[in-house]
Inverse folding.
């Protein structure tokens, strides 16, 4: 009866650590954007006037105007503790205020619909990359130090170094500009029917392919490095002595080596917004990456904070899931106390 | 002392005999040399203007961009700053993740390790690009060297967490080995155990952190430049890619312009790929190829039918 109590203590400890990390993270996210000099209204005004940031901000006329508008919008700086209390309250009630660049739209109304596109893109690409990458990695491992191994690892490393959006540029150049079989721009969605769905599929084929290619490396190297160690285990020698074919052995060891890749896929999904940042920026997909990039360049404080919150929650949840999965799938890690 | 020396000699031999490590190092050196050449000399001045968007020719090996600049000159000129950021971030990430991973693993279960755990998880959630945006907005008017130093620092401060988790779990399993427990029992000081007994076995992991930190640095720089959130004080491959995307060079088929911006990155990636194959031998000595000297001996064995010779 000792084990369950120990497990409960361990689990509560982990939950406490995650809660603490959550509060530290949202506090950091409260402080960071407030450290940024310049305000969103300056950017907005200079955008309206067609002036460039610094120039617009420095003129006395503009700053007087800004003060007026700030008062009108209820944005006049308040003491930090009142701002912080409002911020915490907003997080738990889901009311994060109105975006400045998209005034008067509520932040939540921009953040959540945009998440669908980014999550869709990253989840689909990472699942494809998971299976393709694990398979390639297992082949590289079983044929270690052969030409096949070197080709797989080097090609994968090159694909990992080229930013995803550059891979997509070349794919778009080939498939949509020259061959004209893929749409270059995000389809106009008014209502969801079969036609818009098909054009969405058509449009997304290139960004998904590009993301898969750039995500492959982690899965290939993860599988390869882990399998190299497993291949030295005694049961593999036994399988070899039994005369099992190379492919059969590969399949057996594959299943025993997949664990790090399962952790990998949850973390990649947790980092979805960062991954989509440039891809959606390039193709102007109205997803979280695109709007987050916009909010950073325009210093739209409420919107930045909204995305910060989603990034933090998404990543904490994915780390927790990775940890739980590890415990469930690896009998050696089961039971906690190690 | 003598034995230790012999051991290090054999390690050096493993490194120099390893083809993969040799090719990897050669490629990284090639990239650095390209960068150094570019910072001293380029075929044309970076600001010289020629006819716009010309495909590659003997006059312009990588063609010209939409502004009429020679792409090869731009590439050479922009390589060194990009590599600086990459290697700088790589080195700092390796250092930070090793120290934090060692401490977190060695003091596992104590208050210190819980604090380290919370900090690690928090840092994991902050994307490097965001800190870069915040910090760099202070340095809008700063000069080039300051701005790259700040870039490296900001990216490293939030980039070490993944590596630290990896190293921590490795240290955790090492800490339960007999030789560490024995050292604790005879009263060795903690820092002696950490730096002389736990550090050496995880050094290959530290090196892996350097490689991945370098990639992370280059990719984050490119992302930040893509959104134009860094003060544009100097050009690097990221600014080059940003111009490419604002000009939608892929819609007008200017493949050479994009290629110019990624050739140094491709060389870097290939080098890292080869190094990655090479270092797995250090992570697991069982993978090392051992060639035993094959000496054949003739043994004479007396039997009922006289002496027969058997070669072993």
């Amino acid at each position: 009866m000792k084990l369950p109590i120990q497990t409960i203590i361990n689990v509560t400890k982990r939950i406490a650590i995650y809660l603490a990390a959550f509060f530290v993270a949202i506090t950091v996210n409260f402080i960071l954007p407030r450290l940024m000099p310049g305000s969103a209204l300056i950017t907005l005004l200079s955008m309206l006037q067609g002036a460039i940031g610094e120039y617009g901000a420095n003129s006395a006329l503009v700053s007087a105007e800004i003060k007026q508008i700030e008062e009108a919008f209820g944005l006049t700086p308040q003491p930090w503790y009142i701002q912080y209390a409002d911020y915490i309250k907003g997080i738990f009630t889901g009311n994060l205020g109105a975006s400045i660049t998209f005034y008067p739209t509520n932040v939540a109304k921009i953040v959540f619909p945009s998440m669908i596109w980014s999550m869709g893109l990253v989840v689909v690409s990472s699942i494809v990359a998971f299976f393709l990458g694990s398979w390639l990695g297992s082949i590289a491992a079983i044929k270690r130090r052969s030409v096949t191994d070197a080709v797989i690892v080097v090609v994968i490393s090159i694909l990992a170094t080229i930013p995803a959006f550059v891979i997509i540029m070349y794919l778009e150049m080939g498939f949509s500009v020259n061959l004209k079989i893929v749409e270059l721009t995000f389809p106009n969605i008014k209502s969801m029917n079969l036609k818009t769905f098909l054009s969405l599929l058509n449009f997304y084929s290139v960004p998904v392919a590009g993301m898969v290619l750039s995500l492959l490396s982690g899965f290939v190297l993860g599988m390869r490095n882990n399998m190299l160690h497993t291949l030295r285990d005694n049961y593999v020698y036994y399988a070899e002595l039994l005369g099992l074919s190379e492919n059969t052995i590969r399949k057996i060891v594959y299943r025993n080596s997949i664990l790090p890749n399962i952790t990998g896929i949850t973390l990649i999904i947790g980092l979805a917004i960062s991954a989509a940042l440039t891809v959606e920026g390039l193709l102007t997909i109205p997803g979280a990456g695109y709007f987050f990039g916009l909010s950073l360049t325009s210093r739209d404080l409420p919107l930045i904070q909204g995305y910060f919150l989603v990034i933090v929650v998404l990543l904490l949840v994915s780390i927790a899931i990775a940890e739980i999965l590890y415990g469930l799938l690896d009998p050696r890690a089961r039971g906690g106390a190690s | 002392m003598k034995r230790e020396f012999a051991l290090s000699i054999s390690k050096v031999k493993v490194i120099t005999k390893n083809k993969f490590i040799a090719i990897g190092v050669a490629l990284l050196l090639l990239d650095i040399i390209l960068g150094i050449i570019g910072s001293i000399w380029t075929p044309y001045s970076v600001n010289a203007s020629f006819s716009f968007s010309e495909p590659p020719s003997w006059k312009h090996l990588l063609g010209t961009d939409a502004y009429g600049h020679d792409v090869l000159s731009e590439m050479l000129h922009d390589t060194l700053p990009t590599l600086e950021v990459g290697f700088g971030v790589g080195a700092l990430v390796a250092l930070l993740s090793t120290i934090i991973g060692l401490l977190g693993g060695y003091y596992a279960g104590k208050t210190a390790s819980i604090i380290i755990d919370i900090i690690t998880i928090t840092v994991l959630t902050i994307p490097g690009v965001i800190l870069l945006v915040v910090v760099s907005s202070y340095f809008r008017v700063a000069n080039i060297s300051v701005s790259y130093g700040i870039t490296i620092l900001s990216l490293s401060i939030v980039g070490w967490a993944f590596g630290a988790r990896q190293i921590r779990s490795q240290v955790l399993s090492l800490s339960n080995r007999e030789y560490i427990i024995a050292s604790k029992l005879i009263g060795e000081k903690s820092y002696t155990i950490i730096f002389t007994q736990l550090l050496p076995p995880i050094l290959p992991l530290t090196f892996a952190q350097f490689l991945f930190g370098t990639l992370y640095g280059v990719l984050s720089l490119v992302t930040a430049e893509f959104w134009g959130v860094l003060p544009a004080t100097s050009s690097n491959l990221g600014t080059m890619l940003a111009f490419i995307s604002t000009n939608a060079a892929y819609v007008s088929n200017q493949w050479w312009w994009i290629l110019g911006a990624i050739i140094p990155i491709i060389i870097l990636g290939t080098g890292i790929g080869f190094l990655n194959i090479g270092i797995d031998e250090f992570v697991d000595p069982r993978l090392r190829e051992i060639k035993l000297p094959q000496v054949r001996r003739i043994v004479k064995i007396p039997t009922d039918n006289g002496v027969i010779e058997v070669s072993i």
User: Anything to note?
Assistant: Chain A is about 80% helix and 0% strand. Chain A touches chain B through 60 residues (CB under 8 Å). Residues 50-57 of chain A have pLDDT under 50 and may be disordered.
